[in-house]
Amino acid sequence: MEDLVASTLSQELKIPHLVARFLVSRGIKNVVDANRLLHGSEDDVLDPMGILGMDKAIDWVLNVRDLHQKVFIFGDYDLDGMTSVTLLTRGLKHIGIESEWRLPNRFGDGYGLSRSAVDEMYEAGARYVITVDTGITANDEIAHAKELGMAVMVMDHHQPSGDGLPVSDVLLDPHQDGDSYGNPELCGVGVSYKFMCALYARLGLPTPTQYLDLVALGTLADLVQMTPENRYFTKSGLRRLQKSEWPGVQAMYASLMKPGSAVGGIDVMYKIAPLLNAPGRMERPDPALKLLLCDNKSEAPALLAELKNWNASRKQKEAEITDMAMEQVKKVYGDRIPTVLVVAGEKWHVGVIGIVSAKLAQVFDRPAAVLSVDDGMAHASARAVPGFNWHKALFESRELFDRWGGHQNAAGFSLSEDKITELRERLEKSAAEQGYTGEAQPCDESHSFDIQVALRELTVDGFPERTVLDYFDLMEPFGGNFPYPTFRAENVKVHRMRELRGGHLQMEISQGGSRVFPAIGFGLRKSKSHIGADHKVTVIFEPTWNYYNGRKSMQLCIKAIE
């Protein structure tokens, strides 16, 4: 049945059968859905006025402009928050509204809006404040701002706490009760963009698509679900990243990408996002936001160099804590890994525990929380795996926490050190209630892949310069819940293999008379024993572009050799 569907897709859309089989393996069963994934559709963009409170939000901002007042924009310290602040700062400036921005310091301020941040903005003259990518759970802090006489708009995408909504003047959050907007999975910068679209439409201005590169960065970095609207925004934004209007983004592209290369979702998640998040993880996020807001091409290189230094420090600290966390898992649990993994260390750097928790979740195939304990308090960052909802789990135990927030896939919280054991027990109970059993074995040596292929299928019949990669480029963004295509090929012959520094294997491979493909296996030195002069192997691989001397060609990235 699946092969019949793939044949139909191949014929109707005029795409290679391999591409059609891949689409079917990802749950695409009809021509309409396949065409939407390949090409996107403006029909996927919903009316921003469908978000509850949008009319009131526009009125609020235009009133600020009429009063010639300044807006203080307070965003979260991650990339979603920083792109949100950048978009609002640029978008409001374009219509004549002056603004200042503030980002919290995760070491001094913690997650989200704090009373001290409210007081600081008030002392600096703030009377009109927009919180973005944060605020929906800041009930006490916003009540404090109102007591000081400040007007507050909350623009968020996180789930409400369950203990009522903040007493803000305006609230935009597609997760609030009564909001029937068709895409509640917008991230913070997505909500910001929808607001700017509605505002510009009210003023008779063109849709501000120049900000979609920022939307793509925040959407991918925040790991929100790739709904049709999110995918359309991200796909469009990735194309804009190549020729961004913003000097800071231009500098990043020139430094991190090969000239003329397309930016994919993997590039954002593993190159751009870590770089921009690095200063906020190590000290303060401000340098990254300054790069995003930079309007001077001559200043961008120095700002970028500063971020690279922060990123180098982040990598070193991350590696140290990852090693300690892995060792703790082995020492405490051995082979009996719990359903929800919780590890804690004394004064672990809180800026990198989110990355470490993501690594633990990946390695052990369990939802993971990594806690940094300091002076009796534990600050945590958590990451999920499919089937487990962190927001639901934390909400059920919210009385344990001093502060908490997040969504299904990622969350943060703080609690007293003496409550960690109770938290572990409650998380196990929540997992059971959610129906998550953690049955997948973390030490399973098998390697996952989408479909089995013949290497000759990687090129397109009749078009010697065309490959399946041209079609996969159309499917971007990959990442998160839509990982990059991975294939399996059997009876593969290895030609001319050599080992590179770092334990990488460079080779050429072919199969049954196919053309010879260049390939590289990062860190696969241990697999050399599988490869002999006349011994054929099975390979798990990703087809990727290789850029060299201004030309691009297909290279197979070998993930495993069997």
Brief rundown of the structure:
This protein is an alpha/beta fold and 562 residues long. The chain has 18 helices and 18 strands.
Protein model, in words:
It is a single chain. The protein is built from 18 helices and 18 strands. Strands 2-1-3-4-5 form a 5-stranded parallel sheet, sandwiched between helices. Strands 6-7-8-10-9 form a 5-stranded mixed sheet, sandwiched between helices. Strands 14-15-16-18-17 form a 5-stranded mixed beta barrel. A hairpin with a 6-residue loop joins β15 and β16. The relative contact order is 0.08. Helices cover 40% and strands 20% of the residues. It has helices spanning 2-13, 17-25, 31-39, 54-66, 79-94, 115-123, 139-147, 188-202, 212-221, 228-241, 247-256, 265-282, 286-293, 300-333, 353-364, 390-396, 420-434, 469-474, and strands at residues 71-75, 99-102, 128-132, 151-155, 170-172, 341-346, 368-374, 377-383, 401-406, 410-416, 451-452, 459-460, 463-467, 487-500, 504-510, 517-521, 537-548, 551-561. It has 562 residues and is an alpha/beta fold.
Secondary-structure content class: alpha/beta
Radius of gyration: 25 Å
Low-confidence stretches: 440-445
Strand order, biggest sheet?
Answer: 2-1-3-4-5
% residues in beta strands: 15-25%
Total beta strands: 18
Notable characteristics:
single chain, 562 residues, alpha/beta, globular
Please specify the SSE layout and strand pairing.
Blueprint: H1 2-13, H2 17-25, H3 31-39, H4 54-66, E1 71-75, H5 79-94, E2 99-102, H6 115-123, E3 128-132, H7 139-147, E4 151-155, E5 170-172, H8 188-202, H9 212-221, H10 228-241, H11 247-256, H12 265-282, H13 286-293, H14 300-333, E6 341-346, H15 353-364, E7 368-374, E8 377-383, H16 390-396, E9 401-406, E10 410-416, H17 420-434, E11 451-452, E12 459-460, E13 463-467, H18 469-474, E14 487-500, E15 504-510, E16 517-521, E17 537-548, E18 551-561
Helix pairs in contact: 1-2, 4-8, 5-8, 5-9, 5-13, 6-7, 8-9, 9-10, 11-14, 12-13, 12-14, 13-14, 14-15, 16-17
